[in-house]
Design a protein that fits this description.
Strand order of the largest sheet: 1-2-3-4-5-6-7-8-9-10-11-12
Number of strands: 12
Number of helices: 15
Largest sheet: 12 strands, mixed
Radius of gyration: 21 Å
Distance between the termini: 54 Å
Order of helices and strands: HHHHHHHEEEHEHEHHEHEHEHHEEEE
Length: 392
């Protein structure tokens, strides 16, 4: 099968003539459909049905074609296809069924999360073109929830009334899965707010559903907005196999609209937890014009941590060794913990002491920005709260 390589040779004209909505409607959303692509044993089938009942299945055919069907450990398969490990709860390691990032505490209504004084995040949709198995919002993905923006105009009024907000992140779900007309109305609400320096649209479409970027009307919209305010797209490549010819073309179309693209990967067990894979990922991003920006430590999310989290003691050494093989642009990314107290950069370790620097702090705790933290590494600890405080 693995026709991903074939797809990268398809002409741009052919793709531009396709309807991205029609292609999205062909997503694999059931175990029966999945079995037409991947060999499943009766036990596999039974397990997948159990997992999908709690955490839905949704995979674009483009992305499914990147999987080697003969390799059960294929990294793309791990990112897209459910496994029975998602039903394992690891209470010993402090998994949470809530939100370890603390977003819920900063919900201002109308989908606005005002976590840092200078940034407002607007949850524009709960829908994604693919349901990633490591998603930290897994408890809500594919299900109705009250964080969907009901009235973006009201969200824009909040932003306009808070002059301390310097930038807005339109997030989700995946905002680029909204129709171009809807996106246009959202961007128009932000265009005239004078204290906004720039706008971000968080999207994994360049990675898992790049055909969305082949709609000329969307590119024209982004280019038009970019004339008034710089537009950035944070995206989410996790493995070099995701960097295909089609993904590169999608990125180039965004560049043609003047959009800057930054990558926010997650360190994931069995996906990119090797020096060679991390190095190839960062080098591959630069080859297609995407900036390595963040590498996140996997959050202790229920039904994610057991399968994907790498212990910090292992992760910090892995990242340091990979950086030794990277040039200056490739190693610019920050290794990050997105914690309830704010964003923390993992700077490195001295013996068994992990050194962190707080980059961002929640409202009311701005004096904590730029402070250093020191924690004692343990063999299994994968999160800040797992590690005891120590002095230098």
């Amino acid at each position: 099968m693995n026709s991903g390589a074939l797809e990268t040779d398809t002409s741009s004209n052919d793709r531009e003539g396709q309807s991205w909505q029609a292609e999205l409607s062909r997503n694999i959303v059931s175990v029966a459909e999945l079995e037409e692509y991947l060999p499943l044993t009766p036990e596999d089938r039974r397990d997948l049905e159990r997992v999908a009942a709690s955490h839905p299945l949704n995979i674009p055919r483009y992305y499914l074609d990147l999987i080697d069907p003969d390799d059960p450990g294929d990294p793309i398969r791990k990112l897209a296809v459910p496994t029975i490990d998602e039903l394992i709860l690891d209470g010993e390691m402090g998994e949470t069924t809530g939100d370890p990032y603390g977003d819920d505490k900063h919900d201002k209504g109308n989908g606005i999360l005002h976590k840092y004084p200078y940034t407002a995040l607007v949850v524009a949709t709960e829908y994604c073109s693919m349901y990633c198995r490591h998603c930290f919002r897994k408890r809500m993905v594919g299900l109705p929830n009250d964080q969907t923006v009901q009235n973006f105009r009201e969200a824009a009024k909040y932003i306009a009334a808070h002059s301390e907000i310097k930038n807005v992140v339109i997030s989700g779900g995946d905002p680029l899965l909204l129709t171009t007309d809807v996106l246009k109305s959202m961007l128009e609400e932000l265009r005239g707010i004078p204290h906004l320096n720039y706008v971000r649209i968080g999207s994994r479409a360049p990675v898992v559903f790049p055909m969305r970027l082949f709609e000329d009307e969307l590119i024209d919209l982004l280019a038009d907005f970019n004339r008034d305010k710089p537009l950035y797209i944070p995206t989410h490549f996790n493995h070099p196999k995701e960097i295909t010819g089609i993904a590169r073309e999608a990125v180039q179309r965004l560049h043609g609209a003047g959009v800057t693209i930054n990558n926010q990967a997650v360190l994931l067990r069995g996906v990119n937890d090797s020096v060679e894979t991390l190095t190839d990922l960062m080098d591959g991003l630069l080859r297609i014009g995407v900036n390595p920006y963040y590498l996140y430590q996997c959050m202790p999310v229920s039904r994610v941590r057991h399968q994907f989290q790498v212990p910090l003691k292992e992760g910090v050494d892995l990242v340091d060794e990979a950086r030794r093989k990277m040039d200056g642009y490739a190693k610019r990314f920050k290794f990050i913990i997105g914690h309830d107290i704010g964003k923390l950069e993992i700077c490195g370790r001295i013996d068994d002491k992990l050194l962190l620097k707080q980059l961002h702090a929640r409202p009311g705790y701005q004096e904590e920005s730029s402070r250093m933290l020191v924690r004692k590494l343990t063999d299994k600890g994968g999160w800040l709260d797992d590690l005891p405080e120590v002095g230098l």
